[in-house]
């Protein structure tokens, strides 16, 4: 079983002034932007460009549901690491768990926000649900299996 610390990918983003609210902390909705960027960069790392996907298959990904918990604020100039993991791949959808973390000067890490993001695959012209293209599904499944294998290799034995 995968633990909460085992993720498929990590992506870093620096907090800029434009990301903060009047109180000097990251505006809550910007975590959704950070999570979106991390998923997009993860797809890109798998060789999947979203514009090319739309042109070649007529399919696009859309967010269909989100649920976020905000635990601690990020502030101007923080380096935030977005960790993403596929929780489920369906015929026309992918469910992600994503977390935003900040490294503290003492070497510890602090969880800032956690989100459950449900993505749907739809036809670009009609926005009706459609199957995730086979090559995209295979790339996602392969990446998730590789992350799982790495997590299993470094995880302490459950029998110990």
Structure description:
With 160 residues, the protein is of the alpha+beta class. The chain has a single domain (9-154), classed as Hotdog Thioesterase (Thiol Ester Dehydrase, Chain A), CATH 3.10.129. The chain has 3 helices and 5 strands. The protein has helices at 30-45, 50-57, 134-154, and strands at residues 9-14, 59-70, 79-89, 93-103, 109-123. The longest helix is centred in the last third of the chain and has 21 residues, at 134-154. The model is unreliable at 1-5 (pLDDT under 50). One of its GO terms (molecular function) is fatty acyl-CoA hydrolase activity. Keywords: Hydrolase. Belongs to the 4-hydroxybenzoyl-CoA thioesterase family.
Supply database-style keywords.
3 helices; disordered N terminus; alpha+beta; five-stranded antiparallel sheet; about 35% strand; Thiol Ester Dehydrase, Chain A
Can you describe this structure in just a few lines?
This is Acyl-CoA thioester hydrolase YbgC. With 160 residues, the chain is α+β, with helices and mostly antiparallel strands.
Please outline the helices and strands:
Layout: E1 9-14, H1 30-45, H2 50-57, E2 59-70, E3 79-89, E4 93-103, E5 109-123, H3 134-154
Antiparallel strand pairs: 1-3, 2-5, 3-4, 4-5
Q: What is the CATH architecture descriptor? A: Roll
> Share of helix among residues?
25-40%
For this structure, what is the CATH homologous superfamily?
Answer: Hotdog Thioesterase
**Largest sheet composition:** 5 strands, antiparallel
Domain module tally:
1
Q: Class by helix and strand content?
A: alpha+beta
Protein name: Acyl-CoA thioester hydrolase YbgC
EC number: 3.1.2.-
Keywords: Hydrolase
Pfam families: 4HBT
């Amino acid at each position: 079983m995968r633990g909460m610390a085992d993720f498929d990918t990590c992506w870093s983003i620096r907090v800029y002034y434009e990301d903060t609210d009047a109180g000097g902390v990251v505006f809550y909705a910007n975590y959704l932007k950070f999570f979106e960027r991390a998923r997009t960069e993860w797809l890109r790392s798998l060789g999947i460009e979203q514009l090319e996907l739309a042109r070649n298959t007529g399919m696009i990904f859309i967010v269909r549901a989100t649920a976020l918990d905000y635990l601690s604020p990020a502030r101007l100039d923080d380096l935030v690491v977005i960790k993403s993991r596929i929780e489920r791949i369906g015929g026309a959808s992918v469910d992600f768990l994503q977390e935003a973390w900040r490294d503290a000067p003492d070497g510890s890490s602090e969880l800032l926000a956690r989100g459950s993001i449900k993505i749907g695959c739809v036809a670009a012209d009609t926005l009706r649900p459609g199957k995730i293209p086979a090559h995209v599904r295979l790339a996602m499944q392969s990446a998730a299996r590789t992350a799982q294998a790495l997590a299993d290799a470094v995880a302490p034995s459950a029998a110990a």
